[in-house]
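Hi support team,

I submitted a single chain yesterday and got back a structure, but I'm not sure I'm reading the token output correctly. Could someone confirm the output below corresponds to the sequence I sent? I've pasted both exactly as they appear in my results page.

Thanks,
R.
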Amino acid sequence: MTDKESENLFEVEEKKVRDAEALVSSQVFESDAATASYGNLLKDYKKLLRQAKRLVRLGDMAQSDLNRLNQELLHAQEMLKRHNEYLSALHQTTLGLIGRRELTDLLETLIKRAAQLLGTTDGLFYMVDPAANHLELKVGIGRFVKYIGTQLDTGEGLCGKVWQTGKPRVIEDYATWPGHSEKMKDGYFGAAIAVPLKSEGQVLGVISITSSRTDRIFDEEDIEILTRFAGIASIALDNALLYEATREAREAAEAANRAKSDFLASMSHEIRTPMNAILGMAELLSESPLNSEQQKYVRISRNSGQGLLDIINDILDISKVEAGQLVLEHTSFDLQELIESTCELMTLKTDEKGLALICRISPLVPCHLLGDPGRLRQILINLLGNAMKFTHEGEIILECGLRNGERGSENKKSQTQDSQSKMEEVTLQFSVRDTGIGIPEAKQKAIFERFTQADSSTTRKYGGTGLGLNICQRLVELMDGEIWVEGRKGEGSTFAFTARFGIDKTPRDRKKPKEAEQDQKMAAPSEVRPLRILLVEDAKENRIVVKAFLKKTPHTIEVAENGKVGVDKFLSGEYDLVLMDMRMPVMDGYTATGEIRKWEEAHQRSATPVIALTAHALREDRQKCLDAGCTDYLPKPLKKQDLLNKILEYSGNF
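Hi R., thanks for writing in. Yes, this is the structure output for that exact sequence:
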């Protein structure tokens, strides 16, 4: 029964009571007792009627309260649902945003999550550009996609106001709001809310959400939700900005390293090219009839040139180490042979100074190892060279033994591999002891730093760049070892280092250098067949050197001053071998070699050996030459015997 029906019913009953009371008043009853009895009944009925009416009213009030409670319950459920959605979105945002590093990806995710949080699909994100002092729309979703790139001044539009004040703001209808920006006047945006993203009190950006629904108005609760969201987003934005700044700094550092490496490689090339002529001519001059004084002058010239090359190589090595480009080889070698040949090489210099050079190898040390013999030799030569430089009398002792007296342990990584591929490793300890001037204890750590010597006066007295020991330290570290020095000033020094090598269980039959040299001399007689050689070289002085190196051989040589001329001559002639400089004007050696290989393939010709001659001395340069189609590689400055050996090596291919 409705409230209206209840009222009508009570009105009818009340009218009946009034009519009955009128009858009682007119004394229509037979006796006073009947009238009194009927009157009492009417009073009781009126009382019951009032109670019923009161009960109905109480029921209405109870129903109203019940309805109100139901509404409050529904609202509470809606709020709980929204709060749970908010907490879920906040949790997802925290996980999703904090882990993101790319700024654009972060901003797009941020604005989508914020719009989802407030139940809409339209939103935008402005970033502050401190340098230009304006806001720029970085990301927009929904109807704001077309506005990406829009810029706002401080105080302009809703987001400009929020940037200016640093406080959130809500607009019921952006289109009719007097402060709206003319840059976004087309289209109906409806209600809008904007909050700042702050870091350490500074506004980094502004996030704004709009709704085109006429029944959607943002309130204080929305401000609180979006402000909390913005707080988390600010942390994520800080991380992204820091990551971007770190990435830019890293890229700048890498670019600087590349520029430095390119510069050093270029300078190496420019220095090696004339050094090729200087040392080549000195070598040719040493083979001519000279008196003792002239031989001395030539020897000084060659030693000085070689010293300059050593400095260039040191600079290139330290540059490669810093750039992370220095990679050790892993080849088989004979340790005893390496140490003997190194000591034999250094003996020539120790004899000149009247020093004794003693080399000792423990019988427990395995001879056949796997590692980088070139870099090990470089370390030993550097340490022996330093010992000779700072020792005026006495002896220099090179020793090699096992670290801690152990024979070597099986590599843990290889234990999971097939038994045939298992490899044992051994840690060796090398030491170079001298009776020289010694090193003060306070300076013993500093000497391993770049461009550092124990005393600045030694630079003037003994020379050197101060790079050698630093390079040794870097190489030793790459060999999983360490290097140190012991001794005192005036009592000599001992430089020691450890290095880890694999043990070669299947060494190849290798001949020692002297035996190989004797075999080569025995095979050298008249078996060398004359070759037609094409020399492609732009430097006139280098062409003269190569022709002079080959003067007493049966080979004939033709020259080309650049790659284009070289290709033209090759296509029109017949050659057994090409000596190709790689850096030339008009057409470089890489392109020229590629053209030659294309022509040979098109005409089904066998590949003619092309030996690259380059002043670029890095390992990657060698690979670049081979990738271009070259058969082999010779670094400048050229040595006569190296060139003759290389030509002899390929003379048997015809």
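A quick pointer for reading it: The chain has a mean pLDDT of 79. Let us know if anything else looks off.

Best,
Support desk
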